[in-house]
Amino acid sequence: MFLYQKVYSQLKDQIIRGETPNGTILPSERELGEIYHVDRTTIRKAFQILSEENLVSKHAGKGTIVTYTGQP
User: Fold this and answer.
1) The whole model's pTM is what?
2) Which of 8, 22, 27, 60 keeps 20 to 30 A from 15, CA to CA?
3) At CB < 8 A and 24+ separation, what contacts does 56-65 make?
4) In degrees, to the nearest 5, what angle opens at C-alpha 52 toward C-alphas 4 and 71?
């Protein structure tokens, strides 16, 4: 499994379980890189997949925000 897949999986699990609820602004790419001990491109790829699955959305100047509501 690639590093971005591990980060993606962990973030997705936190979102789905409600540990990171709808409307939460996720830490920056730099901060998450430090938490997971990976570079920013790895975090960016994980964010991209989360965004494609409509679990988060990126907003310039605000950051990446959880958009998952628990509804299909």
Assistant:
1) 0.93
2) 60
3) 56/15, 56/26, 62/25, 63/25, 63/26, 63/28, 64/25, 64/26, 65/23, 65/24, 65/25, 65/26
4) 115
